[in-house]
Amino acid sequence: MPTLLTTIDSATEGHRLAVFLSPGQDGSVLELHEQSWGEGVGWYTQSRVRIDRDQLPMIRQALAGSAQQVASPATANQHGWRVVHADSA
Fold first, then answer.
1. Are strands 3-9 and 15-24 parallel, antiparallel or unpaired?
2. The whole model's pTM is what?
3. CB 18 within 8 A of CB 30
4. C-alpha Rg value of the chain to the nearest Å
5. CB under 8 A, 24+ apart: contacts of 29-34
6. Which helix (H) or strand (E) holds 1?
7. I need a surface site. Which of 33, 40, 59, 77 has the fewest CB within 10 A?
8. What does the domain layout of the chain look like in residue ranges?
9. Average pLDDT rounded to a whole number, residues 18-39
10. Measuring CA to CA, how many Å separate 83 from each of 4, 49, 70, 71, 80?
11. Which of 8, 19, 6, 27 is nearest to 49 (CA)?
12. What pLDDT, in 10s, does the model give residues 38-79?
């Protein structure tokens, strides 16, 4: 049974990213669920990405490099990136 770790709100109302830890064959895997809100349904998953334990170091490295590139608003604008603050629900 997957365990919900956190949710990250989207800039678009009624959308969020849910982060789950799920059991896998070789240990736990991280799952990212793109979710939408439906009246009468609640939050439901639109798509899911499973990240295996072997992939996590490469993702961390990629994110760390991206964070360094977006050190200032000027750099962020050069890359066309927008810094968004996300709160967990």
1. antiparallel
2. 0.68
3. no
4. 15
5. 29/53, 30/56, 31/2
6. none
7. 40
8. 3-78
9. 90
10. 24, 22, 8, 10, 10
11. 19
12. 999 999 999 999 998 889 899 888 988 876 665 555 555 555
Edge-to-edge strand list for the sheet holding 42-51? 3-9, 15-24, 27-38, 42-51
Top-confidence residue, 27 or 51: 51
In this structure, which amino acid lies at residue 3? T
Residue 29 has pLDDT above 60, yes or no: yes
Q: Considering the chain, what is the average pLDDT of its residues?
A: 81
Structure tokens at 21: 């830890």
Residue 4 has pLDDT above 60, yes or no: yes
| Coil, helix or strand at residue 61 | helix
Task: Give the whole-angstrom CA distance, residue 68 versus residue 18.
Answer: 25
The 3-state DSSP class for residue 43 equals: strand
